[in-house]
Amino acid sequence: MSSGAPRGQGQAVRLSRGASLSDFADRINANPGSLVQEMFNLGEMVTATQSCSDETLLLLGEHLGFDVQIVSPEDEDRALLAQFNIDLDAEIDADRLVTRPPVVTVMGHVDHGKTKLLDAIRKTNMVAGEAGGITQHIGAYQVRVPHDGSERALTFIDTPGHEAFTAMRARGAQVTDIVVLVVAADDGVMPQTIEALNHAKAADVPIVVAVNKVDKPEANPDKVRQQLTEYGLVAEEYGGETMFVNVAAKPGIGIDELLEAILLTADASLELTAPIDGPAQGVAVEAHLDKGRGAVATVLVQKGTLRAGDSIVAGGAHGRVRAMLDENGNQVAEAGPARPVMVLGLTAVPSAGDTFLAAADDRTVRQIAEQRQARRRAASFANSRGRATLETLMEQIKEGEKTSLNLILKGDVSGSVEALEDALFKLDIPEEVQLKILDRGVGAITESNVMLASASAEAATIIGFNVRASNKVREIADREGVEIRYYTVIYQAIEEIDAALKGLLKPEYEEVELGSAEIRDVFRSSKIGNISGCIVRSGVIRRNAKARLLRDGAVVADNLTISSLKRFKDDATEVREGFECGLTLGNYNNVQVGDIIETFEMREKTRA
Ligand code: GDP
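Structure tokens predicted for Translation initiation factor IF-2:
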């Protein structure tokens, strides 16, 4: 059957990752409907506006005779910046380069002393802290130490654990120059030691080993050296190239020697230079929303100098630097390469690992931020194929592959999480499947849950029982390709997991989120009950849509319906993101300011 879609003769068509058929149609001057028809003929049901996988776009391109080129987010960002005459990879004249401090990340097994070590290092350099305000955790800090007759600075990323490291790498940000691998001498090499080692190797970053807790009577630092030789880290004293330093973070022993070793390793294996002039560029290492100060981001300058008053864009957030604070709470006027500073003045919260840059004016940074936001929304669905989902698990089982089902359980109360876990382990699990609970906890699904799910060797599915993920976390999950499944009834969760384990999972209807709104005000009416004055936070709110009510990330009421919807005084069928509306939830009246109303519809699931 012909659909009337145009045929190409090998012309190149550039599409961004996650483009829809209607985007495709735009590029080739076709009617989107004709492409839907073509896909249907090829055996796939795809709607015109749905974001497509790379495979789908390539398949359709090949079928129609177009050479589809899928543009990665990084390429696209480069192209976007080029529109504003910004080239991040531009060659820098050697005479503009100055030596910069190394940026160090501390990694290692849990409880081996990463946090204590970061504290101890920070204490070696209290001068600034004593002079100024209160030392505060901003996600990174710098210390200065005497070395070879001069003073040298070192920058430490102050988020121990591998999450920050992997999150940044996942976004293509290479922040770390050197990894300090902490291994407790009383415990030796453990699974996360190896994980850390692998991360560092994958990033091609030199390692200095801090053999910690040597103050303990049962410490055996030589055993650590010996164990690590098996992983290719041979100590200098054994003829290898890696510096091992015995330390005891708690009493503060060996810290100076460790810093010395880091500097020696940096000087031996790295060329650490950066231009100090020009507009600043770098990476956001940590960011959060502060009640009083708004969006607060710690950025690490990598090139150029950042100054108060600069217009900057970090990921999809932009703004003008209102103030910069260092790790001691002191105001700083400017920050050069490898200097971490906390920046106030952004209009939104960037993600850890987002790159930032200073640009000529407010308009430029706003336009860059807006275009990035639009693109992120479009791309956020692109990952939905190739995920480790319960359905792919089922496929693997069918094909007789050995596989594991990794889960992260989150619930509203600890009792429900325990009940869920107990029930899961009572399931009759087929031999070829291994069920692993990577983590469990009470409360909303967090960014760190998602990062754990995506960072583990086999991706994990997150089960939310009566709890949800915020829009930001959901976006990250989409981007990382992590599946989150929500349940409000335990047996339903168990049933689905059981079915997946037995290879019987039938995808039926899936919940498709339409939008969410935040309650800003509650009006009491004796006639119609409580009316919620809302602002639509994402998507659209539609009259008659199914809804649930969330308070502090937990579901407080389910099975609700948007029974009336008004924009000002007029009835509305739908209200879009950013607009205010008034609505009622049938005869459900227990609404409070700050609650989130989430609306969704049930759609039949298309199977991959
Ligand atoms: P992390 O999980 O790697 O961040 O480990 P922490 O820094 O939280 O340390 C875990 C535990 O080991 C804490 O109870 C510390 O007090 C203890 N600890 C850390 N360093 C030392 C050390 O050098 N000597 C001794 N005896 N205990 C230490």
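The pocket of guanosine-5'-diphosphate is lined by residues 108, 110-116, 160, 212-213, 215-216, 248-250 (CB under 6 Å).
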